[in-house]
Design brief:
Radius of gyration: 37 Å
Shape: extended
CATH superfamily of the largest domain: Ribonuclease H-like superfamily/Ribonuclease H
CATH topology of the largest domain: Nucleotidyltransferase, domain 5
Number of domains: 4
Number of helices: 14
Oligomer: single chain
Order of helices and strands: HHHHHHEEEHEHEHHHEEEHEEEEHH
Helix content: 25-40%
């Protein structure tokens, strides 16, 4: 007895043909039941009468699909992946095969082939805590999320550095990228300056609780940081998230960048911060074309940007200092002498602003007017040592130093002590 393998659809058609053979239904009723035309039902009926049950089996079973990918091209794709894209994911590798080698292959086809060739293993996702989703803001520019990611962006070709990321909440599009050595206030100023010059002033900025954005010491007065002061002057709402999951969009894009951008920099042999910043606009355009979403509303919530000179005056460090009786001000270990003897009486014991621009140049101003100055003196501060460093520098007191004798009970074994070796 021959064993037949049939699918659920074929078994359904077999039951309908058997009912038709018994005269329980008509061909029109069978066509309505199976969702086929009467002509197709007649074709199935002729095959059932001629070949029986086996006539309803698909004649393509066991044969290769007409839509299968050419095995030769698939082997070529795997060879290119081994040579150039060994640590790429299937989707990213398929994009690079089309972009750089003009080889079109579906990412799912490449995924199955890479798994079979042991070139890629699906990652097992750990069961994460469930966080309630936060709805996107409806308008472009209503809320932007910013973050810094310290990562080996150049792999072994260069040192670690920080990538500042600016993401729109409504569209998940990257609005600005900026590479720098460390995560600092100046880096975030440069990122926001790039955003404002391109799009205008956003309504809100969403950040974490890093010290650049807020003072986290409970004993300190609730004064704004340099970044917080700049946001107030630009009339931008600063929101500090209570958890990384709250600003999940920029966190997820950080993960995408650590996979895609690192490999793009490798393919272009970019190993410097200047080269990466020059390539960033090209990457942003390609990334947004692939992954950006449409906003719920068509309105752009950005406001017009202030004049460039005013923007540069705001996006920099400001320090308030009191002028001494002899017209000096101090910041850190440096004393500055104001060169305005004609204004001596008016400036004594008044507040002035010490402003460092984005190039590091110092300006001393009062009510927006610059004041000439010179460096009076530099008083180096005493280095603050940690407990470990203090312990290493501590000199032992010779009066307290004592070395026990060889017959001291602490240096004897139990049997020597029992034999009276301590006498």
């Amino acid at each position: 007895m021959e064993l037949l393998t049939m699918s659920t659809l074929e078994l359904t058609r077999l039951a309908a043909m058997e009912r038709l053979a018994r005269g329980e239904v008509t061909q029109v009723q069978v066509s309505l039941q199976l969702g086929l035309s009467v002509r197709q039902v007649k074709r199935l009926w002729r095959r059932f009468l001629g070949d029986g049950t086996s006539g309803l089996q698909s004649r393509r079973r066991g044969k290769p699909s007409n839509r299968r990918f050419d095995p030769g091209l698939l082997r070529l794709a795997l060879d290119l992946v081994r040579e150039h894209y060994l640590d790429f994911g299937p989707t990213f590798a398929a994009e690079k095969l089309l972009e750089r080698h003009d080889l079109r292959i579906d990412h799912e086809t490449l995924r199955r082939a890479m798994i079979a060739a042991d070139l890629w293993k699906p990652s097992r996702r750990r069961r994460a805590r469930i966080h309630p989703p936060r709805e996107r803001r409806p308008c472009f520019g209503e809320l932007v999320q910013i973050d810094g990611s310290h990562h080996p962006w150049f792999e072994q070709r260069g040192p670690k550095c920080t990538l500042y990321v600016d993401v729109d909440d409504a569209t998940s599009s990257i609005l600005a990228l900026h590479f720098a050595e460390q995560e600092t206030t100046e880096g975030y100023f440069a990122l926001l300056r790039q955003h404002i010059l391109e799009y205008g002033l956003p309504l809100s900025v969403y950040t974490d609780q890093y010290g650049v954005f807020r003072i986290n010491k409970t004993s300190s007065p609730k004064q704004p940081t340099q970044f917080g002061r700049a946001m107030r002057q630009l009339d931008i709402e600063l929101i500090c998230a209570n958890s990384p999951q709250a600003k999940g969009r920029v966190e997820r894009i950080n993960g995408t960048l650590q996979k895609r951008l690192v490999r793009e920099l490798r393919l272009r042999n970019i190993c410097t911060i200047a080269g990466a910043n020059e390539y960033a606009p090209e990457f942003i355009a390609d990334h947004n074309a692939r992954f950006a979403k449409l906003p719920i509303a068509d309105d752009d919530a950005h406001r017009p940007a202030p004049p460039l000179d005013q923007l540069d005056r705001i996006l920099c460090r400001h320090y308030l200092r009191t002028v001494s009786k002899n017209l000096t001000v101090q910041i850190g270990d440096t004393h500055f002498q104001l060169l305005v003897p004609e204004q001596a009486r008016r400036l004594q014991h008044t507040l002035v602003t010490l402003r460092y621009d984005r190039f590091g140049q110092l300006f001393i101003e009062r009510n927006g007017d610059p004041l000439p100055y010179r460096i009076a003196k530099i008083t180096p501060r005493t280095a603050v040592l940690s407990r470990k460093e203090l312990a290493n520098r501590r000199v032992p007191n010779p009066k307290k130093a004592h070395t026990p004798s060889s017959t001291h009970p602490w240096k004897l074994t139990y049997h020597e002590f029992a034999r009276g070796g301590h006498h």
